[in-house]
Amino acid sequence: MIVLGIESTAHTFGVGIVTDEKENFVLADERVQYVPRTGGIHPREASRLFAEKGPEAIARALRSAGLTMKEVDAVAVALGPGMGPCLRVGATIARCLATYFGKPLVPVNHAVAHVEIGLKVTGARDPVTVYLSGGNTAILAFVDRRYRVFGETLDIALGNLLDTFAREVGLGPPYVVQGMHVVDRCAEKGRRFIKELPYVVRGQDVAFSGLLTAALRLARSGRYDLEDLCLTLREIAYNSVIEIAARCLMHTGKKEVMLVGGVAASPILRSKFEEMARVYGVELFVVPPRYAGDNGVMIAWTGLLAYRCGITIDVRRAIVRQRWRIDEVEIPWR
Ligand code: FE2
Fold first, then answer.
1. Separation of 61 CA from ligand 1 center, angstroms?
2. 158 CA to middle of ligand 1, Å?
3. Which of the residues 101, 123, 280, 317 has the least number of beta carbons within 10 Å of its own beta carbon?
4. Are 246 and 131 part of one and the same domain?
5. What distance in Å separates the CA atoms of residue 57 and residue 262, rounded to the nearest whole number?
């Protein structure tokens, strides 16, 4: 079976082609990356880039896999969650491909895809998943046919916290230099923990926007070294995520922890989770950098799992869902 998947929820237009054969399941992995000139993602600008470069990326993916659309069994597409204008480009292209070539269309939830590609490439079987990216912070575990949310951010995501702080104090963009976030790098020279910054765990959840506001206020006051602020910010942010992940581990009794999403590549966060895994006697899995960020392969792979269970969607009903939660999705393949 061969499935072509399209990702376009935020800054990446990705096209992946995968097969269910055991060896070398990735046949193609093409990406078009939107990089904002200033500030954060501008959804309309990103969507314009996707509309312009997306079709070429699909042609490149088919060429590099040595396939034509005739040999593709199904088209999978991330219908959400994500930014409306970006999502609509991927959905439109996927509907066109499915209609024109007479292929089944498979709806994929972007967050489910991060988990599934993590399971596929790390070999984890039934982990507590820590999903961290620019737009998401969630602690997930598979219970009763769904990936349930055991904790999440109530406002902004961990990646957003780090990027916004870096941008406002003049450390970025770029936010990641040689695999390390600029806030992590700056924190390495920090010496002192600043007590004025708030701890951010709220019950099972975290909330980062108050921490961001407080950190920026202190940075602008000029009373503190930026290095100390970065150190304190990242310690609070990372430790709060570890705290809610640990609670999920205790509650579910699972024996594995898996890090997925763009922020999973952080070596500092990884070393903290290594320590946590040692303390709790569980095994740690980290998705490799190639599949940590958004990509088409994870959509194609999840599409393949779903299609094998007979999940497809009528082209006329395949509309985007900007706030499609992971715990709304039934997972019949597990
Ligand atoms: Fe993502």
1. 20
2. 13
3. 317
4. yes
5. 21
Mean model confidence pLDDT for the chain: 96
- Quote the pLDDT of residue 74: 98
Domains held by the chain: number: 2
Calpha distance 8→274 (Å, rounded): 32
**What distance in angstroms lies between residue 197's CA and the mean position of ligand 1's atoms?**
28
Ligand 1 center–CA 312 separation, angstroms:
22
Give distance in angstroms: CA of 291 to centre of ligand 1: 10
| pLDDT confidence band for 179 (50 / 70 / 90) | confident
**Ligand 1 centroid to 300 CA: how many Å?**
14
Between 297 and 39, whose confidence is greater?
297
What separation in angstroms does the CA of 155 have from each of 10, 11, 191? 18, 20, 29
Beta-bridge partner residues of 15: 6, 30
166/200 same-domain check: yes
pTM over 0.90: yes
Distance 260 CA to ligand 1 centre (A): 9
Query: Does any domain span residue 130?
Result: yes
**Residue 239: domain span:** 125-291
Distance of CA 287 from the midpoint of ligand 1 (Å): 13
Ligand 1 centroid to residue 27 C-alpha, Å? 21
70 C-alpha to center of ligand 1: Å?
Answer: 29
**How many percent of the chain have pLDDT more than 70?**
100
- Do 262 and 138 fall into the same domain? yes
Give pLDDT tens digits for 304-326: 999 999 999 999 999 999 999 99
Ligand 1: centre distance to CA 222 (Å): 35
For residue 68, give every residue at least 6 positions away whose Cβ sits within 8 Å of its Cβ, in sequence order, or none.
62
Question: How far is the CA of 115 from the CAs of 148, 241, 257, in angstroms?
Answer: 12, 17, 12
Claim to verify: residue 228 and residue 275 sit in the same structural domain? yes
Same domain, residue pair 286 and 297? no
Cα-to-centroid distance, 11 and ligand 1 (Å): 9
